[in-house]
Automatic annotation (TrEMBL):
This is Lipoprotein. It comes from Allgaiera indica.
Length: 85
């Protein structure tokens, strides 16, 4: 147990000796002179978006058409000859 504590202390001590990266050099001059982003009111961010009318009225029809298209594609791939085989 004592060895584990000493090992963790040594690892933490060595990690504290590392240098920090120069983050100021990573930001270009155009980013430094850019305007701050416009903040949105918290009420707009927290409200749930309303569902589009097209997606809300018939999701089953869209899924059925998509399923039929996928089944047709699978049937086509299943019946396709294997090249070189």
């Amino acid at each position: 147990m004592l060895r584990l504590i000493l090992l963790c202390s040594l690892a933490a001590g060595l990690a504290g000796c590392t240098g920090f990266p120069k983050l100021d050099a990573a930001v270009g001059p155009e980013a430094r002179q850019a305007a701050y982003p416009r903040l949105a009111p918290l009420g707009q961010i927290l409200t749930c978006p309303t569902k589009p009318a097209a997606a809300a009225k018939a999701p089953g029809a869209d899924l059925a058409a998509r399923g039929a298209a996928l089944r047709a594609k699978a049937r086509k791939l299943y019946n396709a000859p294997i090249p070189g085989g």
